[in-house]
Specification:
397 residues; alpha+beta; Beta-Lactamase; Alpha-Beta Plaits; 2 domains; 6-stranded antiparallel beta sheet; 6-stranded mixed beta sheet; 16 helices
């Protein structure tokens, strides 16, 4: 077998000189080619635990940049995907070797017929066995007429073991970051991974606070079948979350039909952050109006949306019991935002802005007062605001 001991040692040591899947593929394939293996194409495909992506593939071709591709769930359920050779390897847990000068390979695996048409002569797919029993796949292809020698096949098979350990470790890191970002938010997830995991581990930050919900959600839930209600909520949140995250905001939690998000002030200053939050509110309003029009056309359930914007100091971090924590914000400013949100019905407004928020920078110029209201738990009546009607008809929310 060709001497690949240095490559195995490099993989066993974590391939620390190669960052990310692109760097790993580039350096691994360069090292294998340097060891005398006639490699012209290589790929690694790993299934993922991700809400939108079923798998991640990286493809190396000699003389070209490494190509990364995401496989959506619809793709991995397609007939073409299920007929691919790497799926056969995942299902059987054994390596697959095919010479591509045989006409039968295109019938057995149409993908190999495509490789043959591109001038490839030999193909090998090796299973990457993870310690939890999952099987992922690395594949290798040659173009020279003789294809791979037995020594080449032995070397590529031997590489699969340390490669599997390394890919598993990196996949786990990617998965934990994905899950934390998905369930608690990008910034909160990064803090947790950085070690902020103790109960009471909080810090005081200044932020704009976003609290929204659906008015009359209880009666809506009583009227709609569960699947239809869930689909409605997902469409409703899709109107808001992209607008928030695109502007640096962070969604901290969903509470049934409610959504809590913050826009940390950081170095931007409160004026910029509040203007950003207001811009996100305008976009969410436009999105929900469009969704309302579609609902009206279908004569389906509408979305009586309410939103409150406030700004102030909050405690940001871990709150909860010893065994179940929530990474969130707490404090008087959050409570006041909740009281403002509760006034949307009384004020007959889909969106209300607190006096503290309205007085930041030039925000007040874009708002109109709706009067002074007594907020539960707040010492004196507060003046509340909404978007200037000239910016759009809020009543159509």
């Amino acid at each position: 077998m060709k001497d690949i001991s240095s490559i195995v040692a490099w993989l066993d040591d974590g391939a620390r000189s190669a960052s990310g899947p692109q760097g790993l593929m580039e350096e691994l394939c360069s090292r294998l080619a340097g060891a005398g293996i006639p490699l012209e194409r290589a790929s690694i495909f790993v299934t993922m635990l991700h809400p939108d992506i079923a798998g991640l593939g990286s493809i190396w071709r000699r003389g070209q940049p490494v190509e990364l591709g995401e496989a959506a769930y619809d793709l991995v359920r397609s007939d073409a995907f299920l007929a691919a050779p790497h799926v056969w390897v995942q299902r059987t847990g054994t390596a697959l070797r095919r010479r591509l000068d045989d006409d039968a390979v295109a019938v057995e695996f149409p993908f190999l017929g495509k490789l043959r048409g591109e001038g490839f002569t030999d193909y090998l797919a090796t299973p990457l066995h993870f310690t939890n029993g999952e099987i992922h796949v690395a594949s290798w292809a040659a173009r020279q007429p003789a294809g791979f020698t037995d020594e080449d096949v032995g070397a590529l098979t031997a590489v699969a073991r340390p490669l599997a350990r390394l890919v598993e470790i990196r996949s786990l890191r990617r998965t934990e970051a994905t899950l934390l970002e998905t369930y608690i938010g990008r910034q909160a997830g990064a803090r947790v991974l950085a070690g902020h995991i103790r109960r009471g581990d909080t810090e005081s930050i200044h932020a704009a606070i976003w609290l929204s919900d659906l008015r009359g959600f209880t009666s809506l839930a009583d009227r709609l079948p569960p699947r239809e209600l869930t689909a409605l909520l997902n469409r409703y949140f899709d109107c808001q979350v992209p607008a928030i995250e695109a502007r640096g905001g962070e969604v901290l939690k969903f509470m049934g039909d409610g959504l809590l998000a913050i826009f940390p002030t950081a170095d931007d200053g409160p004026a910029r952050v509040c203007a950003t939050a207001l811009a996100a509110a305008r976009e969410a309003r436009a999105n929900i109006l469009a969704l309302e029009r579609k609902a009206a056309a279908r004569r389906s359930a509408g979305l009586p949306f309410s939103l409150a914007l406030h700004v102030g100091e909050v405690l940001y971090g871990n709150v909860g019991s010893t065994e179940r924590l929530d990474f969130t914000v707490v404090g008087p400013a959050v409570n006041e935002a909740s009281r403002v949100a509760a006034m949307c019905r009384s004020a007959d407004q889909p969106m209300l802005v607190s006096a503290a928020f309205a007085e930041v920078g030039t925000i007040r110029q874009r708002l109109v007062s709706v009067g002074r209201y007594a907020l539960r738990g707040v010492g004196r009546p507060q003046e509340l605001f909404t978007l200037d009607p000239e910016a759009g008809c809020l009543k159509q929310f």
